[in-house]
Records
---
Amino acid sequence: MKRRAFLKGVAAAGATALVPAGAVGTALTACAPRREAAEGWDFDEVVDRAGTWSIKYGRVTDGEIPMWIADMDFQTDPYVRAALQKRLDRDVLGYTSTPDAFVEAVAAWERQAHGYAPDKEWVGYAPGVITSINQAYLTFTEPGDKIIIQPPVYDHFRLYIERLGRMAVDNPLLFENGRYRMDFEGLEKLFDAKTKALVLCNPHNPIGLLWDRETLVKLAEICERHGVIVISDEIHGDLALYGRTHTPFCSVSEAAARVGLIFAGPTKAFNLAGLSGTAFCIIPDREKREKYLGALRNAKLDEASIPTIEAVLAAYRKDTAWLESLKRYIEGNIARVERFFADNELGIKPLRPEASFLVWLDCRALGLPQDELMDLFRTRAKIIPSNGASYGPGGEGFVRLNIGCPASVLDEALSRIRRALGE
Ligand SMILES: Cc1ncc(COP(=O)(O)O)c(C=O)c1O
């Protein structure tokens, strides 16, 4: 009831253009919640996702708490919901072109959020981050070519490299003294005539690391020397925590701008994962950009849907009050997890993420084979985390816990872990 009243307030507040001046090509600007409402985001509210075809909840069979796939259980950003509602109130959802406002909003957001100022011509619509990365494999590599990934890493990189008949080559991260870093020595040994691309996860899922400028500069230099492009997945970049900043790959050096292609979108930070196809690319190098955008056009993957356009314009606004509140809430949840494992000696160590709402739990001290570890969480604790082993070498003995949920749900999950491990 409270929520309905709030949304009515949103509609009554009328339209306010928050994207940069001149960025909104039509009258359909995002409509903004009133300022006073901005103080009251209720991330504590347990939102009922039943009947929404949620993939996360589809896996629940016996009252488990689902803490795996990377969407959050909070209400989607109310500015975006308001913009979508306003658009749906128009009578016609006809064929629509992607307005210039789309790339202008993305370029302005990169400047505002990450201090990166790409030319507008470098920015384009991209049909979802993974679909677009897959399209990059098809555009810049041939079947049988090698593509380097850095496990433990987001499993869909390997999955689609292999589905598309390319070969995933591992350059595992090094984990020393509780901190991950890239293995440049190992990387130098991997290149041969078949190696055409490296997929960078920036920030790195599942370990939550924000790569620093120095690392990215070095990576760009090595990849350029070996004639390899860098496909940088930056979908978690808007969720840099603790006041830190995300570093867009192509911003770090001229070499990075020559070899890099960035793919990102607002779907993680603003909780819009179900608006599939909502993403953008930034490709500074003209030849690569023309080749890539041409391939998207030929596959008819170059047209943004109405919800995507409205969502991008509404999410990438100047007012970041909602996003900042969300990040503080996530930091609070991380603190709960850290306190819990510090207070209870269970043999599990959380690695503090520097970005996003995914916590990498080091369970190696339990000494369990991976299937027993998963069974402990799923059958005994009745929570569903992501299986660390699914992220490739280095993931065994770990699980990834999605803590993008109300604190009360997180507390219940943690007490279930304590009970299960106490048994
Ligand atoms: C690193 C990373 N890239 C891409 C995606 C999915 O992006 P999209 O839904 O736009 O394909 C995810 C989702 O969890 C992710 O963690």
Note: The radius of gyration is 21 Å.
---
Amino acid sequence: MGFSVTFLGTGAATPSLERGLSATITNIDQTLCLFDCGEGTQLQLKKFQIKSSNIQHIFISHLHGDHFFGLVGLLFTFHINHRKNPLHIYGPPPLKEILRIQMEMSVKELSYSTIFHSLNSDHFMEVCEDEKFTVTAFPLQHRLPTYGFLLKEKVRPRKVSHQFIENYHPPYTDIIRIKSGEDYVMPNGQIIPNQEITFLEPQLSFAYCLDTAFYPPLAEMVKNVDLLYHEATFMHDNVELAAEKGHSTTIQAATIAKMASAKRLMLGHISSRYRDLPSFINEARNIFPETDLAEDGMTITLRK
Ligand SMILES: [Zn+2]
């Protein structure tokens, strides 16, 4: 089963030719989740050849325009394209009414159903359970109610060891039995326990954390995450401005990644004022070496 993350928009506040507004897509075995939907997201989906009809869940972090003003347009396009699959939308409670008013004025009845899930918890709470993954929402620290999200794979079926197959060349029917948990019975009657010839793959995880000021409790909520996407609107010389605006700096994002023992950090929501990106990234790498800067269209593959 594949697991990848594609950054569609990595800029802050207003779009530029280099960076679109906040939107990130995850693909777990062709089930797509969209995190935020800034203005222009539809075009980014097309540009980066994402099959948007496979989006099943849309998560909106907060109601600043650069994170959701593209949503109504995307919903309208789904209707024009005769979408039939239900769509789950998760966001702060006022979003439901905002969407209702916008859609009612242009469409009598959508071609598909939408299921709205209000986020109003002040603690870590599972909000979505799909066949292969769960998504948990948790509060961040910003200028209005804002949620971060942790997407985590469910426990996957045990895999049969390649070494065992090479050594014993079991028939396909036996491999199916082993996958379902049975021991292997050799032609001479000897039994090899299932635990010795199968293994569990790790449950991969991705955390989406923007927008937020430096918020140390976040580290505990995303502990050991495989890929942390954390905002870094500013470099650290603007640490006071960042606090005032409810945003983070490079060093603060890297500090959260380090505290969380994340495996990898991607920085996003970059202010368009920064041109010297090597300096930007190095500031974070001094604290957390496994840091990279997200770019529009960049895909990180956690599992092929
Ligand atoms: Zn914001």
Note: Residues 277 and 293 are 8 Å apart (CA to CA).
---
Amino acid sequence: MEAVPDNPMHDGRSPNQQLLPLTAQVLSADRADADHLTIGGCSVVSLVAQFGSPLYILDALTLRTACRQYRLGFERHYPGPSQVLYASKAWSCLAVCAIMADEGLGIDVVSGGELYTALEAGVAPRQIYLHGNNKALGELELALDSGCVVVVDNWHELKTLDHLARSRSQNPQVMVRLTPGIECHTHEYIRTGHLDSKFGFDPQDVPAVFQFLSQSSLQCLGLHAHIGSQIFELQPHQDLGGVMAEWFALAQKEYGLSLSELNIGGGLGIRYVESDDPPSIDQWVQTVCQGVREGFTQRQLPLPKLLCEPGRSLVGPACVTAYTVGSRKEIPQGRTYLAIDGGMSDNPRPITYQSQYRAVVANRMGADADQVVTIAGKHCESGDILIRDLKLPLAHAGDVLVVLGTGAYNYSMASNYNRIPRPAAVVVAEGNASVILRRETYSDLLRQDCLPEFLQPSIPT
Ligand SMILES: Cc1ncc(COP(=O)(O)O)c(C=O)c1O
């Protein structure tokens, strides 16, 4: 495990409101490597020289600070028990899961693979919650074998799980995912009775679900809802408490279910570009807690154990991706394209969601950003553009370009498109760097390939 920073809360800054990781510094002008960017006390240029390019660089202090701000926020704003889970879909690997567990967080997983990763990282099964709108039988069996909590999403799963539990004489712990009718966009939200979502039970199904649960072999711990991702508004999360409290009241008063846990999902946004203005982690936690307290108090219900499951706001701001600049194409009266040695295979978000990012040149931090360039990936897709019309200092082949805020939904969505090996990842803290994901090799790319005998090159006689 990397060294634990002395000052875990750092200087009170909320990581999700920063463009750069909390430890980012620029080396002073009196050094040979003046103007170079350091993260976690490590020079980014030296990290690339040592570990290769592209490289994901995860700052332990930023990650741990975000975990602690969530945890301490609940301690401050919620009088009942609470548990923060990490939505590991944002970045599932052994080291990230282990850091989360070390910080006292549980893990939300959405597949057998993520469940296996969390278990192998040493996370206690009771701290793992399995999501998914179409869990395979094998995934449900792994969940029952391990003893994690299953978040039931739909009728097919509810009946399958009940049948499976009876056949194994088990009474597994479950939560039920409901669609609360609150739909968020980044800057506005709508509230409807019914939502066109593939996840969770529709509100009209809720009474029948409670009826089924009251006679099933499943121990229903409570209810779950998740209303969206990269949300900057607080009001939807405030309102969610009231909606969920209403369903708690129904479950307990009409169906005799004694529910003890409420999971209000994740969704807090982060600053990818200067104009992004998300609330802080503490403001989000305070709002969630207030909504739940009001909703439950108004209905004279005891406060549930309150769970949340952020992903992006924990891991997103803690990581950057360092690339090496290669070719440059200047179109007369048009754009200037600066090509880097990665792109949509290590960060598919821009081509998938038109997501925006910012970048800096790690070896020219003090230079004026007086050029407008477009950062092009190296894949055979015209759309493989990481950042359009970015202001940067003049950058040449060999310079190190650092894209910010790449911890969430980058490595976890990475592919081998164009048979490009996935980059390595390192965790940095107090001047030390440790590999947490090895760089793939060409032979890794062929790991699953089979060449049937009839296709094997014949040796000329
Ligand atoms: C059920 C559920 N929980 C938690 C999350 C994490 O959301 P975020 O990364 O925006 O915090 C997601 C992401 O979409 C989700 O679907």
Note: The chain has two domains: 15-59+318-445, 61-315.
